[in-house]
Amino acid sequence: MCTILIPAYEPDERLLKLIEQLKKMSNYRILIVDDGSGEAYRPIFDTAAAVGCTVLRHPVNRGKGRALKTGFQHLIEIGETRGVVCADSDGQHLPVDIQRIASALQKSGSSLVIGSRHFTGKVPFRSKFGNTATRLVYSFTTGTKIHDTQTGLRGYSSGLLKWLCQIPGERFEYEMNLLLEAARQGCRIEEIFIDTVYLDDNKSSHFRPLADSVRVYLPLILFSASSILSALLDFVLLLLLRGIGGSLAVSVIGARACSSIFNYTMNRKYVFGSRQNKAKVYSSLPKYFALVIAVLVLNLGLMYLYNEWIGIPLIAAKLLTEASLFLFSYWAQRKYVY
């Protein structure tokens, strides 16, 4: 039977109730990571240890992503071979649904199984809105549709444990980064629909709407910043080349050649991960510049359409063209280049 991993920060009696119910259902190994909850919560963790759970502790709060990695690293060290199911400590994941994920992980052969919530009935607005937004962002950036990108109920095969420890992110952004990386590597994701449980309007959640949302959407934010800087460089060079008498085609191509080199360097290093070795660079570089050529053709075509045929002024035509190609470029780089 696989291990149940529960990251916990300042839990209440619901954690102990979940443990009791899980133990009645099957002889699960239960691993709990106390993410710096403090002395006031030690009795709860001591009780969990007394009934047979393994409890690991962080001296200070380090975030859900780090707590999960601590658990994964422990499972690697003890030689876990049957996989792990991650669940939250606040009672939002029913024991029967945890068991369903564990069974699917063992039977289906999938390396990644997630419990997706239906989001029916009375759902807190911030939870429904947040999941809808991240679902749309994830679908757009990866080309893969997942109904619930924010679920904490997930099952992983033991073969993924080392990979899970390498995913960037220390807090709530870790789980989104994980799904993004899984899609990039072509990992098959199996979804199983589970009940949606919100207690006290989800007040027990430690998700910080502003700070953690920024972390979740950071890849898109960084991509936007890189694109804006590249667009500014491209814009200035276009005006300079056009101003000294270059044709529209020469000006567009020259400006794009310089700005694309800058954009590739920024995206490879800061947006889509700085861990690429030389082999990966050699792989991504030709794909990136193939995309540059495709975007350049589209860019040139749109510039001629807006500036030469319709008669829109050069600056306005340039801005309209870049806006038209921004989302396409992000999707293509995430999906095919990096």
Short description:
With 338 residues, the chain is an alpha/beta fold. It contains 12 helices and 7 strands. Helix content is 59%, strand content 11%.
Walkthrough of the structure:
It comes from Paenibacillus puldeungensis. With 338 residues, the protein is of the alpha/beta class. It has 2 domains: 3-216, Alpha-Beta Complex (Spore Coat Polysaccharide Biosynthesis Protein SpsA, Chain A); 219-337, no CATH class. 59% of the residues lie in helices and 11% in strands. It is built from 12 helices and 7 strands. The protein has helices spanning 13-25, 42-50, 64-78, 95-107, 125-142, 161-166, 173-184, 209-216, 218-243, 248-271, 278-309, 314-337; strands at 3-8, 29-35, 54-58, 84-86, 112-117, 154-156, 189-194. Helix 2 links the parallel strand 2 and strand 3. The protein is elongated, with a radius of gyration of 24 Å. The model is unreliable at 204-210 and 274-279 (pLDDT under 50).
